[in-house]
# Entry
Amino acid sequence: MDGVERDVVVVGAGFAGLAAARRLREAGKRVRVLDARDRVGGRVMRGNLAGQTIDLGGQWVGMGHDRLSALAVEAGCSLKPQYVQGDKLLSVGGRQKRYQGLIPPVSPGALAGMGWVLWRLRQLQRGVPGHTPWESTKAEALDACTVARWRDRNLPTADGRALFDVATRAVLCVEPDQVSMLAFLHYLAANGDFETLTSTVEGAQAATVEGGMHALARYLAEPLGAELRLDTPVTAISQQGTRLVIQTTAGDVHARRVIVAMAPAMAGRIAMTPFSAEREQLAQRMPMGSVIKVQVAYAQPFWRAQGLSGEMVSDTAVFSPVFDNSPADGSVGLLVGFIDGAEALRWSGRPEERRRAVIESLVQSLGEAAAQPIDYVDQDWIADPWSRGCYTGVPTPGTLSRLGPALRAPCGAVHWAGTETAEAWCGYIEGALSSGERAADEVLEALA
Ligand SMILES: Cc1cc2nc3c(=O)[nH]c(=O)nc-3n(C[C@H](O)[C@H](O)[C@H](O)COP(=O)(O)OP(=O)(O)OC[C@H]3O[C@@H](n4cnc5c(N)ncnc54)[C@H](O)[C@@H]3O)c2cc1C
# Structure
């Protein structure tokens, strides 16, 4: 590739990079997109289970994810509402109960505690701007307090605390003592609220894409043709005169502007000249969450016949939360769920043992019918060298208040995209798309 020159090089062919490239090309710019992997989509990835095409990474379209919904329509893919008929299962404090609706079957004390906490979080998030959380009046104090400390002060019962921890892990894939209240409230403010994030109907898990979310990444990438270069890790970006030199394992590319479209932790692995001390340190202090996504197939969705929706949450099971992921015709029964936070670290690198542990946990919840799956697949995102964890980068306590502005501040002619940089829906595909468009607009203004 030596000597190749483009107006803009986009590094990363996830949804952020693909959205940036699309907007730049629509404005008539010569764009090249480089990705380290042999496929597009980044944290969105295609898989196969029992003959069905599935998503091993991001899959749900949430309420308010308008860009993503519009993209699905444009690509000719319909949205399938998440299956929610029947009772959910909740297991907290060693007791499993069935329930419907939003109110979990826990003790009156735990319920009152959860009600108070949800109300209090909604109050607190009002003081944290979704796009500039570091500007909130109590930014430093909130950034110095971990979610675990706040939880202990606000939730008196063990069941209430256990339920809160399960939900926090499911949302961020970190433990409550690894994240500050500022980062947590920012995530809530940028994504609706805690209930939206943990809900199916009218929440972040509202619908899936027929044919798979990854089909939308391929749809965005298709017009790029030969300007998309896969298997091309970028190792360094340096300013030389008025040009940027993008070093890859397949040679150099030159450009007037670069958009680096990936999580800060991954961007931090690219050697940068010029160099931003704040961006560099942010990259070191915004590690990825820990998650293994698991899918299990059965000959039929047998739980439906038991009046169950397939939605399960447990404070002790390896595999939680879980949802029904069966095709619309119910021709085969698929369950999808997560091993997250500290549990994901515990089970990473142990594929056979974790498969057994997952099936055992399903047998405990659903009975012996769960003992005989016809297929199984999981994706350990911690072990993925081009993600190094998921769903998203989570700033450590004390980071967002000090280094937050470096998320989006361009570094010379280098601009930043990626869901972590989004002003709304950060952590989600919707945020990735908007971040790419925002970075493209910055570049277009700079090149005008
Ligand atoms: C298990 C899981 C479940 C999820 N569930 C959902 C969901 O249901 N709904 C939802 O909206 N979101 C979900 N997400 C989150 C969603 O997938 C991400 O927010 C989104 O895909 C991020 O897109 P991105 O473009 O910002 O980053 P990425 O997708 O990470 O793209 C970055 C790209 O940069 C490339 N790259 C990295 N380093 C280099 C380098 N040095 N050189 C060249 N290329 C490089 C990577 O290969 C990658 O393709 C989930 C994620 C996971 C993993």
Observations:
- Residues 131 and 423 are 4 Å apart (CA to CA).
- The pocket of flavin-adenine dinucleotide is lined by residues 11-17, 34-37, 42-44, 57-60, 233-234, 261-263, 266, 270, 291, 293, 381, 386-387, 390-392, 418-419, 427-430, 432 (CB under 6 Å).
- Residues 429-447 form the longest helix (19 residues).
- The chain has a mean pLDDT of 96.
